[in-house]
Write a structure and sequence with these properties.
The protein has 8 helices and 5 strands; from the N terminus they run αααβααβββαβαα. By secondary structure, it is α+β, with helices and mostly antiparallel strands. The chain has a domain of 112 residues: Fusion Protein Consisting Of Minor Coat Protein, Glycine Rich Linker, Tola, And A His Tag, Chain: A, Domain 2, CATH 3.30.1150. Strands 4-3-5 form a 3-stranded antiparallel β-sheet, covered by helices on one side. It has a two-stranded antiparallel sheet with strand order 1-2. The chain is elongated and about 175 Å long. This is TonB family protein.
């Protein structure tokens, strides 16, 4: 006790004494509460598992099978369509044509076109097929005055037609004894239909040519033109006209029906019927 009193006699010595006691207590507490030294832990064997993710296979697309060589050969070996040249007009047909005056010598014009086509040969399906339209003038004695090409869809068809015209035999005189001017289309195609005409309606006058009643040149007095009424034949003239009409052939009837079908048929049939 005397020793303790001696240590705290002065404030400085008391502070040192308290500090030393505090440090000693803390060191003692640390020694008491420190965990004991542990042994080195055993090594744990680790197994690494590698998972390999495979990408899904893409969906198989349906592909159109490529045609075999055999199929291609079958398509390329298709026989093209053909149409033989018609027979030339007979002497009887030319005799009728040289006397028929109705509808701008209708029989003469048909026989002329048939004669040209008969000398052009067989039409074969392909790039050489086509049509050509001419404007022809024939003198009263039957000789060709001029031939002009209005349009053509095949150079081969035009050349064959012109060659045939240049080699045509002598033609009979025109029916009315006057120059005959007309237009004619020559079809050089394997799909051409027969153009044999019908004559039963040739005595019916042609309807008047349409004239726009409101047409105006901007200078003269403006008037409304009246359409001329259709011409009417007196009974005597009609009787004389009917004497010229021949009996229509079966070929002419069939050709007329075919022309009507091609003109008025529809590409979309009525499926409701």
């Amino acid at each position: 006790m005397a020793f303790f009193n001696r240590l705290i006699q002065s404030p400085r010595s008391a502070f040192k004494t308290a500090l030393a006691i505090s440090i000693s207590l803390h060191i003692g507490l640390l020694i008491l509460y420190l965990p004991p030294k542990s042994k080195t832990p055993n090594k744990i064997e680790q197994t690494v598992v590698v998972i390999k993710l495979e990408q899904p296979e893409p969906p198989q697309q349906k592909t159109t099978p490529v045609p075999t060589v055999r199929t291609v050969r079958t398509l390329t070996n298709t026989v093209p369509a053909t149409q033989a040249a018609p027979s030339a007009p007979t002497a009887q047909e030319w005799a009728f044509a040289s006397q028929y005056t109705l509808k701008n010598s209708k029989g003469y014009r048909h026989s002329w076109g048939k004669q040209v086509r008969s000398m052009m040969g067989t039409a074969v399906e392909g790039p050489d097929q086509g049509e050509v339209r001419f404007r022809i003038e024939i003198a009263p004695n039957g000789q060709l005055v001029s031939i002009d090409t209005l349009w053509s869809t095949s150079r081969v068809a035009e050349k064959l037609a012109r060659d045939a015209v240049s080699k045509m035999p002598a033609l009979p005189p025109t029916p009315n004894g006057k120059p005959l001017v007309f237009e004619r289309t020559i079809s050089f195609s394997p799909f051409a239909s027969d153009d044999t005409p019908l004559y039963r309606d040739d005595c019916i006058p042609d309807p008047p040519q349409f004239i726009n009643p409101f047409a105006w040149d901007g200078k003269s007095a403006q008037t409304v033109a009246k359409t001329k009424p259709p011409e009417k034949l007196d009974p005597q003239a009609l009787a004389e006209c009917l004497k010229q009409l021949p009996q229509d052939s079966i070929e002419g009837e069939a050709a007329s029906n075919q022309r009507q079908i091609e003109q008025w048929r529809s590409s979309k049939p009525n499926l409701q019927k």
